[in-house]
Design brief:
The chain has 200 residues and is mainly α. The protein has helices at residues 3-7, 10-37, 39-58, 65-88, 91-117, 127-144, 167-173, 193-199. The chain contains eight helices and no strands. Keywords: Membrane, Transmembrane, Transmembrane helix. This is VP11.
Length: 200
């Protein structure tokens, strides 16, 4: 492969690399936060389930049977509600999804870093084929990933192409969008007045 073969694809690969780094950091943060939040569901469920077992096993020796039934009913109800809420909000599913996305993004980032650090004539693969494969893998990872509430996802470097939307027009769609840096190794795109009017 010659350097010219890669020059058309490297800006896109660099954008994907930067996006992998940014998204892996955000999904890692979300995974760690989800792991902390699950404590508020699992600990009460464990404690109340143990209490229910104690009440059923031998609480009638110290408490009235009707009181034991009420306590057992209440604790079972709370355990059921907590379990239903945990399932409704997909706590475990979202946590595992964030972990998987974080690992996949980090793996893709490492692979891209090692490839781009090599001289173009030493990469040993076709630039177009490699770029298409990497773009497809990135898309598949993002398709499986959950949607994050973090506003910084709107600053994903993947949006930063050669013809990105002007910042003042971008903000009309979302206040979360901020000024994006120029595309890697390319000058920022210039937009004519007619192009800006077409977004209005």
């Amino acid at each position: 492969m010659t350097e010219h073969d890669w020059s058309s694809y490297e800006p896109t690969l660099v954008r994907i690399k930067h996006s992998c780094f940014a998204m892996h950091a955000l999904y890692r943060k979300r995974y760690l936060l989800s792991r902390e939040r699950v404590i508020y569901y699992d600990v009460p469920i464990i404690v109340l389930s143990a209490m229910t077992s104690v009440f059923i096993a031998g609480a009638e020796e110290w408490l009235n049977a009707s009181i034991v039934k009420v306590l057992t009913c209440v604790t079972s109800l709370i355990v059921g509600v907590l379990g239903a809420l945990k399932k409704f909000f997909k706590i475990d599913e979202n946590r595992e999804s964030c972990l998987e996305t974080y690992k996949d993004m980090f793996r893709l980032f490492c692979e891209l870093s090692m490839m781009l650090d090599q001289p173009p004539d030493s990469r040993g693969v076709d630039a177009q084929k490699y770029s298409t494969e990497l773009a497809n893998r990135y898309s598949e990872i993002m398709d499986r990933a959950i949607v994050l509430e973090d506003a910084r996802t709107m600053e994903n470097p993947i949006y930063n192409d050669k013809a990105n939307m002007p910042s003042k027009l971008r903000k009309r769609f979302s206040k979360s969008f901020k000024e994006l840096p120029p595309a890697p190794e390319t000058p920022p795109a210039r937009h004519t007045h007619a192009e800006e009017e077409s977004y209005a």
